[in-house]
């Protein structure tokens, strides 16, 4: 640079100092919020498991959550999609109410037995709390984007105990085919510190044992490719079914609180009819089981149906832990067919279904390494890449943009995933159905 008074590394020092301080503040806020959330989640999960009959109050709990969001949460109901939209097209600071509303809504959902996750809650709390610093430090729109991304990374990292995957998730989740490297330092630092903040509060994350990873052979690679295709299709099915049910309910039922009331009634009745609570809540005990021995081959379908029924009718929470459950149990079911160890294919499915549904193959691969060790990296990387391709241009986050299409299909750069079906429909109509 001709006009620079100092060498570039020297000029970067004030920038580094500023973003290091902001990232640490974001990390403390997000990590502390995640810790409070995880402690609360443990308490309500233990209560629900000890008092199984509480499931019959799930319809009323759903109505209450729907009513609260109708009265107080219309501006933040879009959840993760609101964060992604604000990063791409900044308009106004995310209301602080997003954090307590999603926290309370998720805790209620888990207490009474909905099948929802926790990532959405942690990410929304992290993003909303981070964005409040916009007022304090009078951040420009371009810098505000980085702040929200750091909050997303911090929330994800602290709720799962995977700091590197959390950092990359915040960079990768915004757009298909492109990552925002301008935020890499604040996202990385915020994720690492947020994870340490959670640990300092006494949070303990579940440890999964993937066992001995088989040596790479022609067969193990072929089996991983085949499994990756099925994992991607499972991710696509989950995303399409959840969005489809949500759209159907909104079209048929105008009064929002009635949607989770109906969904809660169906879920509670299904739990009673099946005589098991195996498919509600986070389902972590079943995930752990999937690494140890063969499970019923239908477990992944059960979790998929219960989660779609819960999230699609308006219960609050995340999608990611249910996706871990679906992936691990699907991998468990495929293991005998593909002559792979149960634990290995469960671990691969754990991350690969998430990779396809969220369109985040890099973050998912790094998560596999953090959770299961470096030996699984080749298999996880391959399965996540294939799953990402086979899930198509769908995903659990409708606000994701298409920066680069996954294959030869032409899609305008910057299009939201949520707008893609209408675009393709119009394209087919114009071409007489040839596309």
UniProtKB/TrEMBL annotation:
Protein topology in the membrane: Multi-pass membrane protein
InterPro entries: Cl-channel_core, ClC, ClC-type_chloride_channel
Signal peptide region: none
GO molecular function: chloride transmembrane transporter activity
Keywords: Membrane, Transmembrane, Transmembrane helix
Parts forming coiled coils: none
Pfam families in the cross-refs: Voltage_CLC
Localization per record: Membrane
GO cellular component, one term: membrane
Domain of life of the organism encoding this protein: Bacteria
Transmembrane domains' residue ranges: 20-41, 53-72, 93-112, 146-171, 183-204, 216-241, 253-275, 338-358
UniProt cross-references to PANTHER family, sorted A to Z: CHLORIDE CHANNEL PROTEIN CLC-E, CHLORIDE TRANSPORTER
Name the record gives this protein: Voltage-gated chloride channel family protein
Originating species: Rugamonas brunnea
Lineage: Bacteria, Pseudomonadati, Pseudomonadota, Betaproteobacteria, Burkholderiales
